[in-house]
Amino acid sequence: MFEIYVNELFYKAYDRSVVLSSPALTNEKTIAAEEKFTRARDRASRWKFMTGDLILGTVRPDTKLSLR
After folding, report:
1. Distances from the Cα of 15 to the Cαs of 18, 38, 52, 53, 64, in angstroms?
2. Per-residue pLDDT at 68 exceeds 60
């Protein structure tokens, strides 16, 4: 699941760089691209922290939890 959000973050970052390097750059386009990127970054960060909390909370000496 986390990979989906990281992938979305990558595409939003790419879209933002395309918009910012466009010759037809407007303030509205800049704001929209930044908002989409920030939303994707925040979503990926929440998943990262949630996954980390789950891993730390479920790891016991007698269990082996493997991550990909």
Report:
1. 5, 12, 28, 31, 39
2. no
Q: Scanning the structure block, which residue is given the tokens 């986390």?
A: 2
Query: What pTM does this model have?
Result: 0.64
pLDDT in tens, 4-51: 767 788 888 888 888 888 888 888 888 888 898 888 888 888 888 887
Q: What is the DSSP string of the chain?
A: -HHHHHHHHHHHHHHHHHHHT-TT--HHHHHHHHHHHHHHHHHHHHHHHHHHHHHHHH--TT------
Looking at the chain, how many residues does it have? 68
